[in-house]
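Deviation from plan, reported transparently: iron/sulfur cluster complex.
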Amino acid sequence: MSDKVDRRAFLADGIRTAGTVALAGAAGVLAGQSSRAEPMVWQLDPDKCIACTNCATKCVLDVSAVKCLNCFDMCGYCDICTGYYEMGYLALDTAAENQACPTGAIVRRFVEERSGQRFYEYTIDKPLCIGCGKCVKGCALMNGSLCMQVEHDRCLDCNECAIAIACPTQAFYRIPASQTEIMKRKAVTALASRAQRALQSAGGDAAKRQEALEMLARVEQQQRWRAEQERLQTADSRRRTDGDRAAGTSDEERTTNA
Ligand code: SF4
Ligand code: SF4
Ligand code: SF4
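Because the crystal trials were delayed, the predicted structure below was used instead.
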């Protein structure tokens, strides 16, 4: 059911995840704006998120600053989208009772029929999304292209994010404001391939070449962030192991002295 299709046939601009905000982030990096003094913002790692519903209920805002998005480079454009349809749907139509989303925030649009298979595009009507993660959980059964991110134009950037405190998987991070997003690893790989293809086909078209370079900058930014997290995690594990070893030695010394 996770039939892959050539997304470029559907979309001129594959990933429309964080949209213009994300592009602004990449442009910021291109312009070399990242610095130590840069303000930090809250963001969540969709690879860690288990769509537990805390994002909808724990935010200090009445309607959460966390919203769903669809990463089109990962989407299968499935007819029977497990993120869109309620598990026990009665019919494959857009009637409210057949939709998983409690607020009707997912828009299903027919794209094309190919070899007898129908393909649909799923976009999120952001103002309607409450960040409940129900669609994210459903989509995880297939390609996992639906995921959540903190919307920076809504987030109050609380000193202690109430969701971060409640998050069972420690998925929340402080990231540089110019980065804006945390992409799934698979999404980064898909974007890297698209960027390389775009660069190769750009030829002498300066605008297309610039677009491809911005995609690559976005990829590199994500890869740098992941590498830094892994470095911090390794350093932390080493500190813990050294601490445990030192504590073990002290216990041994106490036993010997006694
Ligand atoms: S609290 Fe954490 S695990 Fe739960 S939905 Fe939010 S990011 Fe995902
Ligand atoms: S996160 Fe919840 S409210 Fe938002 S689109 Fe998905 S199911 Fe609908
Ligand atoms: S920082 Fe505050 S406003 Fe932003 S997501 Fe967390 S709780 Fe909500």
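Residues 206-257 form the longest helix (52 residues). We consider this an acceptable substitute for the interim report.
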